[in-house]
Amino acid sequence: MSRKASLSGFHEWLPAERIVEHHVLDTLRTTFELHGFSSIETRAVETLGQLLRKGEIDKEVYAVSRLQADAGQDGGKAQDASDPNRLALHFDLTVPFARYVVENAGHLNFPFRRYQIQKVWRGERPQEGRAREFTQADIDVVGDGALPFRYDVDVALVMAEALGALPIGDFTIRINNRKLAEGFYLGLGLQDTAGVLRNIDKLEKIGAAEVSRLLQAELGATEEQAAQALALASIRTEDTSFVQQVRALGVSHALLDEGLEELAAVVGELHRRAPGRAVADLSIARGLDYYTGTVYETVLTGHEQLGSICSGGRYDALAAKGNRTFPGVGLSIGVTRLMMRMFSQQMAEASRSVPTAVYVALTHDDDWSAAQDTAGALRSRGIPTEVAVSAEKFGKQIKYADKRGIPFVWFTRTDDDGRAVHEVKDIRSGEQAEADPATWMPPETDLRARVLEN
Amino acid sequence: MSRKASLSGFHEWLPAERIVEHHVLDTLRTTFELHGFSSIETRAVETLGQLLRKGEIDKEVYAVSRLQADAGQDGGKAQDASDPNRLALHFDLTVPFARYVVENAGHLNFPFRRYQIQKVWRGERPQEGRAREFTQADIDVVGDGALPFRYDVDVALVMAEALGALPIGDFTIRINNRKLAEGFYLGLGLQDTAGVLRNIDKLEKIGAAEVSRLLQAELGATEEQAAQALALASIRTEDTSFVQQVRALGVSHALLDEGLEELAAVVGELHRRAPGRAVADLSIARGLDYYTGTVYETVLTGHEQLGSICSGGRYDALAAKGNRTFPGVGLSIGVTRLMMRMFSQQMAEASRSVPTAVYVALTHDDDWSAAQDTAGALRSRGIPTEVAVSAEKFGKQIKYADKRGIPFVWFTRTDDDGRAVHEVKDIRSGEQAEADPATWMPPETDLRARVLEN
Fold this sequence. Notes:
The structure is a homodimer of 454-residue chains. The first copy, chain A, is built from 16 helices and 19 strands. By secondary structure, chain A is of the alpha+beta class. Chain A folds into three domains: 15-46 and 93-349, Bira Bifunctional Protein, Domain 2 (BirA Bifunctional Protein, domain 2, 2-Layer Sandwich); 47-89, no CATH class; 358-453, Anticodon-binding domain (Rossmann fold), CATH 3.40.50.800. In chain A, the strands form four sheets. A nine-stranded mixed sheet of chain A has the order 1-5-6-12-11-10-7-9-8. In chain A, helix 6 runs antiparallel to helix 10 (223-233) and helix 9 packs across helix 10 (223-233). Chains A and B meet through helix 1, strand 1, strand 3, helix 3 and strand 4 of A and helix 1, strand 1, strand 3, helix 3 and strand 4 of B.
């Protein structure tokens, strides 16, 4: 991570860093599959019409066109920046998933549980130090027409378990509910609920006094209404006691009741099952995203300024096909953002830079084929093994292993009776002992490159 | 695969197909890591200057530009199709790997063994039915200055093992050596060896008579020289007997000797270790690629018209940095091409469409949290488990599992003493028996979705 990307915003990992990333992605995949989520991948490109469908022009998009077409062979048609059929790289996995669901609705079983781990691209300004290419790991459950609320609890439990299995220390999933906030504002007499949310979303940036001023100046709220909206946003509890705190503010509305009940269900179950992992945080607004109920974001303890590493929420209509709607709820982990922090803060590292556990040394150059037999015997038991290509001095062969962090070097010599004698050396301790390629196993901790949490 | 891609050339798999693809990718990864190959990923974009460095203008490239820049904010600079700094999607993994090696040479240990499994993009004409986005799986070994020849044998052995572990039936790795062919042509008195290779490469398409005519017309070969070049190209042996057949043609040249020795080493070792998997095929030319020694291609038995599914070779200079060169040897599997054939010919399928092995049914709606305890106990032993979200009729809950191919449904009821009684039903046989969530295991064959070879 001390290396500078040769193309601003496009990070590439060294082999040892990639081992850590692979571990993170494998852990996520394993957890998602244990909870019955199916893997899908969507193509990297969507049409501009699809990508900008929800008016998300704030996300800078990378347009894609065939170079030959640019050169005029397609009559320059593809050059029109506003052509909705023009192709562009996806900037998240939600829009492509919605399109996939609509296209394949006849082939999918609903509710459909899917996870998707892929790269996305955004043409962010490089000076902000943001990644332009990064990996996201999403889970969503999508229903056909209806999707029971319980999935809002389910996906949060899955993510709490997935994040808890990563070498990233403590984290807090902050949860709110749009219905709760909107019902509260309506109960207060503030009709422009989106306007209130937009201003509450600025709370951390500009402070309570300025938000109060904006609510009064822009939305015509009274000082009392603004104070109430701010009081709601200040509520934070690890259990369901937020319900009483909201009730104590004396506002009532049917939508508020619904939101309170939903948020209590999510937070209550998380508190029971993953204590300390989640809070009801009534300041969470999730910006301009089109959520309609539960909203989630996640901060790493001690790295709060990194922003949310895992966000999401409930959509009443993730996708639509004619008058058929597909509601959904899900969360998305910003894997690359997490990796960059893990490396810059040295939160975790690989136990070695290669998968290899055993390096088979050569005594004579023409032992190579026999050494492959030894390696094959080890590999058949899942032991990653490399074979030297020439019979250099043993010291040099050991150095090959040492530089890569390979823990064991295997030597074979012929005894006086012409029989092969195998010995394996732990190059960390220097211990060397006879071993049988058909049965020898390294300690479990040396079998694979491991990820060590610092 | 009966579905048509909504964007021509961009294929997306259904969840059950993705299980097969995941199995293929996992198998490749496992094999590559068992042989000590490190995983890397490179960014999806390269500069045009990098991509077209070797003059590969035949590969149609997708250019990438920020939409905002297109709209004129960057002064339209990015629009120049010939600007070498313009970004484009990579069309293979070799060019990006070469750039990665040069950029990170100070952080890598050479010889560097890496595998890379990523998508690549080519703006091929859609009417040819080719994929425009597809996954490649590459292995390469790259040296700093020199790379012992033995790696040419090594990578072929690894790929033979990797392909042999896939549900694709029989295949043949066809191997040749550029030095052998070029030495032979030089020994014959034909100086334009690239010209001869280019014509020999057309053999399958246009036939021996036409190649002979072209060699005489274009390269000034005598009828005898053309006949000799064609005789060389007709040699095919599973073992090293090709050496005698070449010698019998009576041509001699130092480069020919070197090529014969190298090819004999590769084919001999493969014949010993993976009999039937490889042939010396002296017609293989690998088109215009810049190989300098061993060349490989691979056909699936019974699917020869599909073309090569795994190709590669040796480069004297995979990359260069000043006067430092990095020779390399490697092979690349066209995974998407393979998957398309596997699906269209129904060569393999997933045993179910979801990872889930057990579906925990609900007797009452408020059993959900207790059902999560049951599911958690099963998941802790690696059993993928889903929980119903509402206590619908058991028939409906069983149907949920049945539609997805989930083999087991779990029922919990309370006995007369108020104790929970757990039963698990195999919905294929209808057998139902008491089970303990803390100890029950499904048969090994039901634990995960498997891939069945047809």
